[in-house]
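New to this. Please check both lines:
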Amino acid sequence: MKYLALVYYDEKIMERLSQHEWDALNQECMECVARLSANGHFITGSPLLPTSSATTVRVRDNRVAITDGPFAETKEQLAGFYMLEARDLNEAITLAGKIPPARYGSVEIRPARELLAEGNQAGGNAG
């Protein structure tokens, strides 16, 4: 089953890391991806640029509205994602616990669902 692991942390805390600390964390992330890939758990993923580079798009009454910045102000910001293959939620939790930035923030795990041409349950709930 596919699980999306969303990595969150407080950008202000990360900005206080020295260049050496930041480089070391990024190297850890690359090593984590290598291990996950070698074990068949890594599908795709990417770090994100800071929220200052974000643009939010909304469509209301057939009009597109854009806003600079993220969707909502929060204590922790979305920093990146890992799409994982795991046999169940327990394995996904174990894998997410090894994602290095989890030490600085959190990793939200959410099962991915298949998008069907017809028969999707309203709201995306797999009942």
About this structure: The longest helix spans residues 19-38. Strands lie at 2-9, 42-47, 55-60, 63-68, 77-85, 105-111.
